[in-house]
Amino acid sequence: MKRLSRYSLLFVLALCIGLGTSYIIETKADAKQKKSKSSKTALPILDPNDPNSIIYGGTDGQIKGKGDPDKPASESVRIGMGWHPQALSDQRLPKDRYGLIDWAELVRKKMILPKHSLDPNEEEMPPLDMNVVIEAKSDFVNDVVYPHWIHTYWLKCEVCHPKIFVPQKGGNPKMSMAGITQGEWCGRCHGKVAFPLTDCMRCHVKPKSAKK
Amino acid sequence: MVMTIKARPSLLLLILAAVFLAAPSYAKPKLGNIQFERKSTSRERAGIGPATFPHDSHEATLECKECHPKIFKAKRGANDITMKKNMEGKYCGSPGCHNTNAFPLYECAKCHTKVRGIK
To answer: Cis (ω within 30 of 0) for the bond into A196?
Structure first.
């Protein structure tokens, strides 16, 4: 009995030491992480107005240079002056609930400044700020609010009118959710280049007025 | 040593009690397919047929208590399900179910028959 308690005492002691050291190591690692985080935020690499935030990619997809706009890797990347995938994986970009980059939020936060056209002589057309309510054909499902603003920020009217949508409220009686899931209507882009169809509530935002 | 001998009878009782309590959920009912044929006016507006719930295949992969009574009342027709609720993360769309782990809610024809425009 005595021996047993002695062993157990030893065991408890060893446990204490083990836990204690691991705690110390952890807090040290935490402190290190905090330090590196704060030094990162002091260097905003995602400011589109700052030439230092541009990373030039070569035609082989590798980084060729960083920060010097006078020494781009090639003509095509200079025209594209885009953001390298490496910049896109940056943690501070807003993400949607699937971890995909939320491009609409990015625009609202003015985190990007894309050129409206490659042709410098083309006149810029400001986005059209007009919401259209599209009724969902169901007694319960929220109606859809279609925002022209974010779409016309990226796209010309002719992309959608009149080929995909007749530009008139309720002017597309054949539109349906089933069709959208088959890649028609909104489904021409959503689920492909724009946010996925699984995000139902991002389109279905307007609750049906109290009727049952 | 003395301690464990003393504990044994009560332990046995505990195990027995647990078995008796758990017994009903072991009686697996093969309920086959359950039809959801309500909300017909709303479904007609959308051009969507009734939904089918294959109880058997769900039984095969999930515990009863994962659905009953937390998500569904275990009684035919006792659950007021709409597509709106599914989309908001209730019933079929509960966290970890359709639209997250199981097939997405936009695959209408996997649950509904007679979806207009889809064979």
So the answer is: no
**Residue A205: pLDDT band with limits 50, 70, 90:** very high
Backbone phi and psi for residue A155, each to the nearest 5 degrees, phi listed first: -120, 150
For chain A, percent of residues with pLDDT exceeding 70: 56
What tens digit of pLDDT does each residue of A60-104 get?
545 555 555 555 545 544 444 445 555 556 667 788 887 778 889
pLDDT score for A122: 84
Closest CA to A195 of A108, A111, A131, A99: A99
Say yes or no for a CB contact (<8 Å) between B99 and A200: yes
Interchain contact B47–A (C-beta under 8 A): yes
Q: Are A45 and A90 in contact (CB under 8 A)?
A: yes
CB–CB of A177 and B104 under 8 A?
Answer: no
- CATH code given to domain A131-206: 3.90.10.10
Chain A to chain B Cβ contacts (< 8 Å): 63
pLDDT band of A6, cuts 50, 70, 90 = low
Measure the CA–CA gap between A202 and A195, rounded to whole angstroms: 9
Query: What whole-number distance in Å separates Cα of residue B42 and Cα of residue A139?
Result: 5
The structural domains of chain B, with segments of one domain joined by +, span: 29-110
Q: Chain B contact for A141, CB < 8 A?
A: yes
Strand order across the beta sheet in which A143-147 lies: A131-134, A143-147, A204-206
Which residue ranges make up each domain of chain A?
1-38, 54-108, 131-206
List the CATH code of the domain at B29-110: 3.90.10.10
Q: Taking CA A208 as the corner, what is the angle to CA A205 and CA A212, rounded to the nearest 5 degrees?
A: 150
- Count other C-beta atoms under 10 Å from residue B9's C-beta: 9
